[in-house]
Amino acid sequence: MDPSETLSPTVTQLDQWMVESQVFKIYELLGSVPRSAQSVMLELQRDNHIDFLTKGLRQLGPSFCVLDANRPWLCYWILHSIELLGDSVDAELENNIIDFLSRCQDPNGGYAGGPGQMPHLATTYAAINSLITLGGHGSLSSINRGKVYAFLRQRKDPSGAFRMHDGGEMDVRACYTAISVASVLNILDNDLVKDVGNYIMRLDGVGCQTYEGGFSGEPGSEAHGGYTFCGLATMVLIGEVNRLDLTSLIDWMVFRQGVECGFQGRTNKLVDGCYSFWQGGVFALIQKLHSIIDEQLMLSDAGGSATESPQTASTSSHSGQRGSAKFSNIGFNFLKEPSEMELLFHSMALQQYIILCSQLQEGGFRDKPGKHRDYYHTCYCLSGLSVAQYSYSKDADSPPLPNAVFGPYSNLLEPIHPLYNVILDRYHEAHKFFSTS
């Protein structure tokens, strides 16, 4: 090939340049407008978001018929967003949601995407998180934990993983939704945990943690932000996080925040607001795993393996105690771990992307400039914004300082439990309820 010939840019490059151009124009606009206009751009449009979300709970347009099998997810995305914004739904709407989700609860356990549909692990996770987000005795007592447990056992595969539904796919997402539900409901036991870690970290070396350091949906696939959160959170909740190569995970994670200031989900992919949580949430978990990471770094420097074998993984303070009465305390005790590790992502830059590029002034959040708002991106942009705002806080009870919040301090959201992505206060209420009932 003649060196003087100019290679044509790829479609991927053209898309990346277009997104960068759109994002940089927004950042340049912020610096060029009067201070009064800057204040509007920097402000979280809380009332508009709540209005957008509440209308979605009451009535959706005909185009949402394609999400008929995802209705508990719509409940979760909207309810969680409203709670993050410091608001709640009225009593009538709350009762209607509890009634609807009760009708999604299958007679044999688990929750379906709608009344009369097939129960599914993903919608079970969404329904449980919705009911925990509503809180109160009526909501929490509507969950039939015995039948949920039976449903989870039915979804358990001999490999150790879980299937999303009867005859369905088996992946890290299924493992996370099953383990998260069991943990938060205080029904996690040895039978559910058995060999989950061996599926995620297969002994033949072809597990879900890839050569890049992130996690794939199934062994041998490409590392992905959503699956990385699911894989890491699952291993924390079953007490086997020691088995992961956390230093390799960090190497992959730190390169996912690009020049746009937001996160991408995979290598060479475009920025997307939803990864504000899926990637940002991973950093929130990593911050509390500093002791294990330090041990792995020392082992690596000494020429040993950075990870622990299945036989030795249970010796760490993060491993939990084997037994049905002990697993649910892992999530509770995880909050007590101080966030002593230096922050590994640019918190203010992420908040800047969310507020300036994902937020729509009329309410709702989007993937990136040029896209439409939706409830999914609203939920995970706000979840990521909360993670970023509290990223400098050393413990769960410490409110962030004003200089840790992008824009006015009134932008501050409610804190979440990073393992379950529910509001912290609602998690504590549920933990107490299910520990005593």
Instruction: Work out the number of β strands.
Output: 4
Number of helices: 20
In which order are the strands of the major sheet placed? 1-2
| Average residue pLDDT | 92
Assembly state: single chain
H/E series: HHHHHHHHHHHHHHHHHHEEHEEH
Outline: globular
Radius of gyration: 22 Å
Structural class designation? mainly alpha
Helix content: 40-55%
Strand content: under 5%
Provide the low-confidence segments as ranges: 310-323
Largest sheet: 2 strands, antiparallel
* N-C termini distance: 73 Å
Write the layout of secondary structure elements.
Layout: H1 11-32, H2 35-42, H3 46-58, H4 71-84, H5 91-104, H6 121-134, H7 137-140, H8 145-155, H9 172-184, H10 190-193, H11 196-200, H12 225-237, H13 246-253, H14 275-278, H15 280-286, H16 290-301, H17 328-334, H18 347-358, E1 365-366, E2 373-374, H19 375-389, E3 416-417, E4 422-423, H20 424-436
Antiparallel strand pairs: 1-2, 3-4
Helix pairs in contact: 3-4, 4-6, 4-19, 6-9, 9-12, 18-19
Plain-language structure description:
- This protein is an all-alpha fold and 437 residues long.
- It contains 20 helices and four strands.
- β3 (416-417) and β4 (422-423) form a beta hairpin.
- The longest helix has 22 residues, at 11-32.
- The radius of gyration is 22 Å and the shape is globular.
- Residues 310-323 have low confidence and may be disordered.
